[in-house]
């Protein structure tokens, strides 16, 4: 039969400054038990027979310590008339394996490629719309599409006074920049 790890919080067993030292020791004990993968632990708090008979340390342990571990505690019970708190701990969360990490990394790379391809496709569409607007003589719409493209990729915006020559230059520079990104 396996022995259940226990900690005795009676003052003669706890070095330090009274109840605060006992609470620190209790936290360290639970942390160690969780790291070690223990399924059960016992915390011996006593019944408060050295005082007025109320189990003050037990209530401090429950309120100040165990409340911080509620996600790690599966069940809690009392032994010896409430002098001992018995805890059933949840198993530690397993770390993802290598296969899962590789699959996640590949999926993230595919997602990034899809986003990149979509951005480039939208960029080419906007560049085509700007060329069409320029061919139709609609400089306002051409400027609008060039600026949408420039904002998407962080390029220089077309000036408000866009003329045919400047529009041709911007179309050529944006086209070259998109080709460079597409490579």
Summarize this structure briefly.
The chain has 183 residues and is α+β, with helices and mostly antiparallel strands. The protein is 55% helix and 11% strand.
For the largest sheet, list the strands in their spatial order: 1-2-4-3
Topology, number of strands: 4
- Class based on secondary structure composition and strand pairing: alpha+beta
Q: Tell me the Rg in angstroms.
A: 34 Å
- Percent strand equals 5-15%
Descriptive account of the structure:
With 183 residues, the protein is α+β, with helices and mostly antiparallel strands. The chain has two domains: 6-89, Ribosomal Protein S8, Chain: A, domain 1, CATH 3.30.1370; 98-182, no CATH class. 55% of the residues lie in helices and 11% in strands. The protein has helices at residues 18-36, 56-65, 98-135, 139-153, 164-182, and strands at residues 6-8, 40-44, 73-79, 84-89. It has a four-stranded mixed β-sheet with strand order 1-2-4-3, with helices on one face. A hairpin with a 4-residue loop joins strand 3 (73-79) and strand 4. The longest helix is centred in the middle third of the chain and has 38 residues, at 98-135. It is rod-shaped, with a radius of gyration of 34 Å.
Characteristics of this structure?
55% helix; single chain; four-stranded mixed sheet; Ribosomal Protein S8, Chain: A, domain 1; alpha+beta; 4 strands; 5 helices; 183 residues
SSE inventory with pairings:
Layout: E1 6-8, H1 18-36, E2 40-44, H2 56-65, E3 73-79, E4 84-89, H3 98-135, H4 139-153, H5 164-182
Parallel strand pairs: 1-2
Antiparallel strand pairs: 2-4, 3-4
Helix pairs in contact: 1-2, 3-4, 3-5, 4-5
């Amino acid at each position: 039969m396996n022995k259940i790890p226990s900690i005795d919080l009676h003052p003669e067993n706890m070095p330090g400054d009274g109840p605060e030292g006992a609470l620190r020791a209790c936290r360290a004990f639970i942390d160690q038990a969780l790291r070690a993968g223990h399924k059960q632990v016992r915390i011996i708090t006593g019944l408060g027979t050295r005082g007025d008979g109320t189990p003050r340390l037990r209530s401090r342990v429950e309120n100040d310590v165990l409340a911080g571990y509620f996600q790690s505690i599966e069940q809690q019970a009392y032994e010896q008339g409430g002098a001992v708190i018995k805890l059933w701990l949840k198993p530690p969360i397993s770390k993802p394996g290598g296969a899962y990490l590789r699959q996640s990394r590949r999926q993230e790379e595919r997602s990034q490629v899809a986003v990149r391809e979509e951005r480039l496709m939208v960029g080419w569409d906007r560049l085509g719309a700007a060329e069409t607007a320029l061919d139709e003589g609609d400089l306002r719409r051409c400027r609008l599409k060039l600026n949408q493209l420039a904002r998407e990729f962080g390029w220089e915006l077309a000036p408000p006074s866009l003329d045919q020559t400047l529009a041709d230059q911007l179309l050529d520079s944006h086209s070259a920049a998109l080709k460079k990104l597409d490579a």
